[in-house]
Amino acid sequence: MQLLVDINCDMGESFGRYKIGHDKEMMEHISSANIACGFHAGDPSIMKETVRLALKNNVAVGAHPGLPDLIGFGRRNFSLTPQEAYDYVLYQTGALHAFVQAEGGRIRHVKPHGALYNMAAVNKELAKGIAEAVYNLNPDIILFGLAGSELINAGNETGLQTCSEVFADRTYQPDGTLTPRSQPDCMLTNDDDAVNQVIKMVKQGKVTTHAGDISIKAETICIHGDGEHALSFAEKINSAFEKEGIQRINYG
Amino acid sequence: MQLLVDINCDMGESFGRYKIGHDKEMMEHISSANIACGFHAGDPSIMKETVRLALKNNVAVGAHPGLPDLIGFGRRNFSLTPQEAYDYVLYQTGALHAFVQAEGGRIRHVKPHGALYNMAAVNKELAKGIAEAVYNLNPDIILFGLAGSELINAGNETGLQTCSEVFADRTYQPDGTLTPRSQPDCMLTNDDDAVNQVIKMVKQGKVTTHAGDISIKAETICIHGDGEHALSFAEKINSAFEKEGIQRINYG
Amino acid sequence: MQLLVDINCDMGESFGRYKIGHDKEMMEHISSANIACGFHAGDPSIMKETVRLALKNNVAVGAHPGLPDLIGFGRRNFSLTPQEAYDYVLYQTGALHAFVQAEGGRIRHVKPHGALYNMAAVNKELAKGIAEAVYNLNPDIILFGLAGSELINAGNETGLQTCSEVFADRTYQPDGTLTPRSQPDCMLTNDDDAVNQVIKMVKQGKVTTHAGDISIKAETICIHGDGEHALSFAEKINSAFEKEGIQRINYG
Amino acid sequence: MQLLVDINCDMGESFGRYKIGHDKEMMEHISSANIACGFHAGDPSIMKETVRLALKNNVAVGAHPGLPDLIGFGRRNFSLTPQEAYDYVLYQTGALHAFVQAEGGRIRHVKPHGALYNMAAVNKELAKGIAEAVYNLNPDIILFGLAGSELINAGNETGLQTCSEVFADRTYQPDGTLTPRSQPDCMLTNDDDAVNQVIKMVKQGKVTTHAGDISIKAETICIHGDGEHALSFAEKINSAFEKEGIQRINYG
User: Fold this and answer.
1) Is the dihedral of CA A150, A155, A161, A166 positive or negative?
2) DSSP secondary structure letters along A92-134
3) How far is B164 from chain A (nearest CA, A)?
4) Which of B182, B251, C34, C76 is most buried by its number of CB atoms within 10 A?
5) Strands A162-167 and A220-223
6) pLDDT at res. D29
7) Coil, helix or strand for C202?
């Protein structure tokens, strides 16, 4: 049996004159691009360019809606009603949809960004607001969320197809949540450790925590497109997949 | 023969806690609502509420994209490339589309706001950028523009259906453009004068300027939803239409 | 002995074309104006006008810095480091200082707005960040904070003069904090109840909670400048003060 | 006689997670830092860090206020009243003042950014609005403007000390204005040409245009802090100064 797995990456996070990420170079190493929609990052012109880039590379286009906090890059939790979450996701996903539509493509998935993603992982009502926004725009869109999270539950309950996400370079807690970035051991700083964690998650459905292995569902792997060794890590993970007989999904 | 005319009004221009306009009360007096999309006014939650209000009242929903200038309410000209105009219109119209789609409706028209509208009236390239954004999102959307403007020309050349707009309470110059707001005689401050101007435009296809009558194509009349006598004027114009045998288009 | 008390009101919360509050009319009923600084409300032009208005009315000028959340009017809590709180308060207070300086006045106090105020009431580190920003700009500025709060403590520890604030129309919990707005009994909706609560706080240093009276230090009373009966309430509270022999501080 | 000249550089133009410029490395090569104030670039935390960096390096601190257009990096002209220019400059300069004051320094100069700078070079009323904002905040602040511009005139007429700026790598037109960026020959792309232009401007008070040499007053030289060869050019210009017996002003 062939193991098939999706690799996703956040894209289009530049803004005006400000550049972040190696979008062009990363495209050949991934299956799915989560494109920022102007709230935490991205602007209309960047969105258009990034959509074009993804479509040209046969990479699936997803919306990556965030909180309206450009200074904080959408990483600061803030108190949000489920209705506001619904409104913000619908607005941003619609904006991205327009660029995709204009280029002859379609939005394949939605993955909330940063604090919105994290809050929706544990807040049932917020998760529901997000899932309903996606469903009401187009029930064929796949909802990406943290494996085992309330967001995945909400997506399934709402009637959406979901995709459980795991992180290559983040460590996990015994309850399946990510170790918060405020803690010293939140990251796997060694590339080999990150690759090994992914392989284990994909092949065995398990991840190691400080209290032993736990089960995890790995349908899509998040890798980062910024930072100095983003490209080399993308190459490593793809090489490891090849060696291990894991096939990266390719929508081309 | 029955004269048929559309009446449109800018809507959804509140923002957060800030309120502008009598949207609810105006709905019964108009055919078409131009809903702000978050750049010059409006926010995601206001957009959702305004879309619901319009659909409930069988009023046609249009996007009302503006410049990214909330402090200036989108009324300050700024140098914009045609590509930026394309990007901004596509982004905002897409965002509104999502709310309309979620509510089971559709976007019927797009009318640029304020400085974007005025610049597109005289700038051929800018007008083309806007028209292409609308066309690429959905070629069935109708483009609203100043009667006789470059925006109307660009819409027609792009292959869009267009709708020529006239203003009830603004005065016109001999070349068919609006008298700039910076000039003292830019407004018709008397309601009866405004009503008479509209009737003449609709029935005779003419408007009076300081250099005599000129021809004008009046397919949709813009009336204002804010200000103290917005509602009374809306009633007056509708009454005058009834008396003159002009029928307001009703999409219900 | 003469009881002396300050009455403060949030001011300058309009934005661009958007209007909130009866600033002009309220000025004669208060001692201190807390002027919004452009993050949660206000813009540079509104700030200038409001500073002029306050100085003309011999009302003490204060900065009213908020969170960078215009859509949410600065009322949504969000995770903020003490350094960010320091930076945001310093930025906004400095901006207001410039307008006051240009008009020949001086900033007399700083009162954080909304969520920033509430978070600083209970978060010691955040409170310290705010107090240090004020102190570093000018140690003569008075810090306004919720009576009994961490913000008042931080101000005192930093070396600032502080002013304990009470609310006319909000109810209190047994621990001295305000009943959250999310609870049904958070407001005193009857004007007489609000007036009586204030008189009791000022004369007896006590406020009633659902678990009996608690002590409270009332150095400044917050009244609201928006809403339909803002002016009539301002008149009522001033009349009640006169009748009870309480003197409103007047800086003129 | 010793020739003394100021070298200035735009600084603090990063925003949130977005980085622009080599601020730290550039500090040792310049006399004056123009620090962005949050409208076109910069945020409160970046401002604080940049002020600290400049003071530590004995570099004079200046405010670099821009138009409220983060997407366009303040480079897009937009229609602005002189009052708005006054308000925007006062707001931003005040915000920067607070950080400088908190660190025990003072604002030495103000240099408007981008489109605001360019519009003020030719628009007398706008220039006056800017000059008055600076003067009203503190008449000891020096106003930086394009040599020969309306901004320099307005500064002098208002009673401010001014400093005439020239650009190392921009070409000039016969009327003394910069060749617009939209024209192909707007830049001197060769470092030696740029260095030679500066030396000629400083020593001879002349600059070459396509219609021959014109007079120019070179009191401060603008060099750029971003781009790949910013540092090497900074070193070249300083070396050339040393060789030519021109002394860079050093405020340390």
Assistant:
1) negative
2) HHHHHHHHHHHTT--EEEE---HHHHHHHHH-HHHHHHHHHHH
3) 25
4) C34
5) parallel
6) 96
7) helix
Best of A86, A87, A135 to disrupt the B interface (most B CBs within 10 Å) is A87
Quote the CA–CA distance of C65 and C154 in Å, as a whole number: 17
Give yes or no for A17 touching D (CB within 8 A). yes
pLDDT at D87 over 90: yes
Ramachandran angles phi, psi of C85, nearest 5° = -60, -45
Instruction: Provide mean pLDDT across the span A17-34.
Output: 96
Sorting pLDDT into bands at 50, 70 and 90, what band is A1?
A: low
CB-based contact, D72 to chain A, within 8 Å: yes
Mean pLDDT of A178-190: 89
Going by C-alpha positions, the residue among D127, D121, D125 that lies closest to residue D166 is D121
Is D215 in the C-facing interface, judged by CB distances under 8 Å? no
**Measured between alpha carbons, how far is B127 from B130 in angstroms, rounded to an integer?**
5
d(CA D247, CA D238): 9
Q: Is D167 helix (H, G, I), strand (E, B) or coil?
A: strand
The answer to whether B60 and A102 are in contact (CB under 8 A) is no
Tens of pLDDT, residues D52-67: 999 999 999 999 999 9
List subunits contacting chain B, requiring 3 or more Cβ pairs under 8 Å: A, C, D
Whether B48 and chain A come into contact, CB under 8 Å, resolves to yes
**Closest chain A residue to D20, measured at CA:** A18
Pairing relation of β-strands B60-64 and B32-36?
parallel
In whole angstroms, how far apart are CA A237 and each of A10, A89, A192, A241, A243?
A: 16, 31, 9, 6, 10
Task: Classify each residue of C11-22 as buried b or exposed e, where b means 16 or more C-beta atoms within 10 Å of its C-beta.
Answer: bbbbbbbbebbb
Q: Contact partners of D by the rule of 3+ C-beta pairs under 8 A?
A: A, B, C
- In chain B, which residues have their Cβ closer than 8 Å to the Cβ of C19? 18
C3-248: which CATH number, 3.20.20.370, 3.50.50.60, 3.30.470.20, 1.10.8.60?
3.20.20.370
Q: Which is nearest to C150 in space by CA: C164, C140, C161, C136?
A: C164
Of B38-47, C221-230, D195-204, which gets the smallest average pLDDT? Answer: C221-230
Cα→Cα distances D53→D61, D99, D209, Å: 10, 12, 37
Which phi and psi (to 5°) does residue D122 adopt? -120, -10
Nearest to B75 by CA among B37, B123, B113, B121: B113
Cβ neighbours around C62 below 10 Å, total? 28
Q: Would an 8 Å CB–CB cutoff place D251 in contact with chain A?
A: no
* Phi, psi angle pair for A151, to nearest 5°: -65, -40
